[in-house]
Design goal:
42% of the residues lie in helices and 17% in strands. With 337 residues, it is an alpha/beta fold.
């Protein structure tokens, strides 16, 4: 099976497993797991932020950030396809008691002007705008990336209106590689950043939330309430450390392979509009003699798994679990359809 459903399907390599088995551990809820502490400090240093907290998932780090930044009855601004809105189980309402102001963006990206228009006036009839959240790369935008100058313009709007800025950076390293940017640029702009380890980096589980020391102190209380204290979590954190030290250099290959598959799909008569491939995600419209479900079934018959993400679109996600030889096989099968 060649699994293109998501970059979350990666499995630890033997080297990563050895690092996990050899991890020094302690009770992380007491702050005594040395490997967890090292991972948190390592990512905080990479992004130039004060502190971090290791959690089981990116959903948890996003939801903790929203909870810390807001109060019940307030409002969060985000793009309508954002993961925090579409794929986190209504957590903004359930966990934080906040409403959401959705913006129709461009492949998951929103502008400073749109955000300025979405900020509520000081009116007792409306919720107070308390947070702006961006997603980079944009999952449903086909792995789209922000231009950093646009992020700086958004930050200015947030500063002018005293609103914190959060980044859902589930695939932030894909964006940094694609745009040739640095993590510290992002650490200087965002008030909080969620960094997933279980996607392009290939760790089996985990995400780190970054912010100021005071922000992370509050986040630890929320993590406890949500059941996110994992005790001897160094076994998992060791995978994240290994990924940061060894797998970052592999991300560009995923991007190149996604482009190769994009070019193969563009030749097919059943492929309509395709979102531009910037990173490791391929999203294509399927119509005519095939529909998305048909294509998923056909490819599964050849041992290739992908996803129908709507009634008109399929998605393929490249990751370090896909070899160059497997990409050749995928393209060969597409060519034969």
């Amino acid at each position: 099976m060649i699994d293109l459903r998501s970059d979350t399907v990666t499995k630890p390599t033997n080297e990563m497993l050895i690092a996990m088995m050899n991890a020094s551990v302690g009770d992380d809820v007491f702050g005594e797991d040395p490997t967890v502490n090292r991972l948190e400090e390592m990512l905080a240093e990479i992004f130039g932020m004060e502190a971090g907290i290791f959690c089981p998932s990116g959903t948890m780090t996003n939801q903790i950030a929203i909870k810390v930044h807001t109060q019940p009855g307030q409002e969060v601004i985000c793009e309508r396809l954002s993961h925090i809105y579409q794929y986190e189980g209504g957590g903004i309402a359930f966990n934080s008691g906040c409403s959401v102001k959705l913006i129709d963006g461009n492949r998951g990206r929103i502008t400073a002007e749109q955000i300025l228009d979405a900020i509520n006036p000081d009116d007792i009839h409306k919720p107070t705008t308390a947070l702006v959240s961006l997603e980079n790369t944009g999952n449903r935008g086909g792995g789209s990336c922000y231009d950093f100058k646009d992020i700086l313009e958004i930050k200015k709007v947030c500063l002018d209106n005293n609103i914190p800025l959060h980044l859902d950076g589930a695939r932030i390293f894909n964006a940094l590689v694609a745009k040739n940017e640095t993590a510290k640029q992002y650490g200087e702009v965002f008030d909080s950043i969620s960094v997933c380890l279980s996607k392009g980096l290939g760790a089996p589980v985990g995400s780190v939330l970054l912010g100021s020391k005071n922000f992370i102190k509050k986040a630890r209380r929320i993590r406890k309430v949500l059941g996110g204290g994992m005790r001897q979590a160094g076994i998992l954190a060791a995978a994240g450390i290994y990924a940061l030290e060894n797998n970052l250099k592999l991300i560009s290959k995923d991007h190149a392979n996604a482009k190769r598959i994009e070019q193969a799909l563009l030749k097919k008569d059943f492929i309509g509009e395709m979102l531009p491939v910037e990173t490791n995600i391929v999203i294509a419209e399927v119509n005519g003699r095939l529909n998305p479900i048909d294509l998923v079934k056909l490819m599964k018959g050849h041992g290739i798994y992908l996803m129908a993400i709507s009634t008109t679109q399929i998605r393929m996600v490249l990751h370090l679990g896909i070899s160059d030889d497997e990409v050749i096989e995928i393209i060969k099968i597409i060519d034969g359809l």
